[in-house]
Amino acid sequence: MLMTYPNPLQDNPAYSVVKQYFVHVDDTVPQKIVVHKDSPRGIHFRRAGPRQRVYFNSDEVQACIVTCGGLCPGLNTLIREIVCGLYHMYGVKNVVGIDGGYRGFYAKNTVHLNPKVVNDIHKRGGTILGSSRGGHNTSKIVDSIQDRGINQVYIIGGDGTQRGASEIRRRGLKVSIAGIPKTIDNDIPVIDKSFGFDTAVEEAQRAINAAHVEADSIENGIGLVKLMGRYSGFIAMYATLARRDVDCCLIPESPFYLEGPGGLFEYIERQLKENGHMVIVIAEGAGQELLSESMESMTLEDASGNKLLKDEYFSKQRKMSINLKYIDPTYMIRAIPSNASDNVYCTLLAQSVVHGAMAGYTGFTSGLVNGRQTYIPFNRIIEKQNKVVITDRMWARLLSSTNQPTFWSPKVAVGDKGNEEEPTELSDHGIWGEEAPHFN
Ligand SMILES: Nc1ncnc2c1ncn2[C@@H]1O[C@H](COP(=O)(O)OP(=O)(O)O)[C@@H](O)[C@H]1O
Ligand SMILES: O=P(O)(O)OC[C@H]1O[C@](O)(COP(=O)(O)O)[C@@H](O)[C@@H]1O
Ligand SMILES: [Mg+2]
Asked: Does residue 284 lie in a domain region?
């Protein structure tokens, strides 16, 4: 039997006011909240939160934090809140940052982190630890974790990062490997939404506003805004829904075509004739197939959108001149600090992940499911990508708000609806050691 300790939070004056502060180890949160009364209750996740007994003696914790993949508003808030959570809730003083993503484990020195060092970082965009894409060497990371005596690893990153985390975890270290899912595109499954997404949608409003002002001030003005979303169009969809003055939103999930009846060009022509201007929001992955058809060879160029709106089509074929104002705010959006709501969200994510690691769990990410903080096993996060379902009500709301054509026949998409039932099951992440306290 491994040693456990009373949770030091029980003596913390700030939290002593809470009537039932500790979460029961068997509390779960259902993935599906709306179910038919006779159907199975589906997958459940462990509810996140402080446990009555913890696995680590605070003095023995040696924690590290790493940020990987593309930037996202909120990374610094998470770093701050993990450090402060460990320090103030559990009295953990040994926390280091890994410099420059996964490769920093073996290619760079670590950075010492304490509440003083991270005090103001949530007001800045980016990540104070730096990040990286591209491959890494798992064995070298595992060696580095062991050499440094690290026993808690906090990994903040997207699908690629969590796949890497899952590999590190499979090496069987006696270490808590805990993830926080990061994606500005909101394309990680299971969770309600990802941190930074709200901030991105809010910041996108400024670009759409500029596109509208520009388009409205000139004859046949088209304001075209490119937003992030290589495979999932959530930012474009929510930014469009929020603005109410976008005439067309194009996302990767919804195929469209340019010429002919019901096509994009016909819609643009009609809008310009009726209103004199229009605003289009395009997610960067939208219309990829059109680009590759129209180019001699497939290239990795961005779908910047203005290629699709070649002036010649309107001037030569339709005898109409258009004024295209193209705005690409993508990196400006990604580089800002998180807004108020994302800051609070990041705080909860960070505290949840700290409670989970202290309780001895491993191989999990913290995440919001149906409004509750949960622990989700890595495999649930990495097995698929979250996408806008164009047969759902949200996309219908968007179509109704922009009045754009659907560009597809309903028959094509009906088959998309996944309706498979999952039996009632507790979806559990791995355990820290064979004898971890909650699984005896
Ligand atoms: N399939 C994978 N398996 C293991 N590790 C991966 C995988 N994909 C990416 N990684 C690691 O995760 C890091 C970040 O991944 P990347 O895909 O660039 O960003 P994100 O985590 O935002 O998806 C990479 O630098 C790489 O070391
Ligand atoms: O230029 P980079 O760093 O490759 O990042 C751009 C890409 O990152 C993404 O935002 C996806 O990153 P996330 O992991 O945050 O979802 C894409 O939509 C975008 O094309
Ligand atoms: Mg990715």
From this structure: yes
Q: How much of the chain, in percent, has pLDDT values that exceed 90?
A: 77
pLDDT tens per residue across span 176-234: 999 999 999 999 999 999 999 999 999 999 999 999 999 999 999 999 999 999 999 99
Do β-strands 248-250 and 95-97 pair in parallel, antiparallel, or remain unpaired? unpaired
What residue ranges line ligand 2, CB within 6 angstroms?
Answer: 69-70, 72, 158, 183-185, 187, 228-230, 284
Helix axes 393-402, 234-243, angle to 10 degrees: 50
Looking at the fold, whether 281 and 187 belong to one and the same domain comes out as no
Is 253 found in the same domain as 148?
A: no
Is the CB–ligand 1 distance for residue 126 below 6 Å? no
Number of domains in the chain: 2
Same domain, 94 and 204: no
Residue 132's domain spans which residues?
Answer: 5-194+338-382
Ligand number, closest to the Cα atom of 231: 2
d(CA 302, CA 85): 40
The residues whose Cβ lies within 5 A of ligand 3, an ion, are 158-160
Res 414: pLDDT:
45
Whether 428 maps to a domain, the answer reads no
Say how many Å lie between the CA of residue 79 and the centre of ligand 2: 20
Same domain, residue pair 66 and 13: yes
- Give Cβ neighbours of residue 389 (< 8 Å, ≥ 6 apart): 253, 395, 416, 417
- Residues pairing with 369 in the sheet: 372
* Ligand at shortest distance from the CA of 107: 1
pLDDT tops 90 at residue 431: no
Determine, yes or no, domain membership for 436: no
Distance 116 CA to ligand 2 centre (A): 31
What is the atom index within ligand 1 of the atom nearest the CA of 133? 25
pTM of the model: 0.91
312 has pLDDT over 80: no
* Span between the terminal Cα atoms of the chain, in Å: 9
DSSP 85: I
pLDDT at 242 over 80: yes
57-68 pLDDT, tens digit each: 999 999 999 999
Which sequence positions are flagged as catalytic? Answer: 185
Distance 303 CA to ligand 3 centre (A): 18
Distance 201 CA to ligand 3 centre (A): 19
- CATH number for position 243: 3.40.50.460
Task: State the angle between helix axes of 138-147 and 159-170 in degrees (0 to 180), rounded to the nearest 10.
Answer: 60
pLDDT at 439 over 50: no
Ligand nearest to the CA of 386: 2
Are residue 288 and residue 329 in the same domain, yes or no? yes
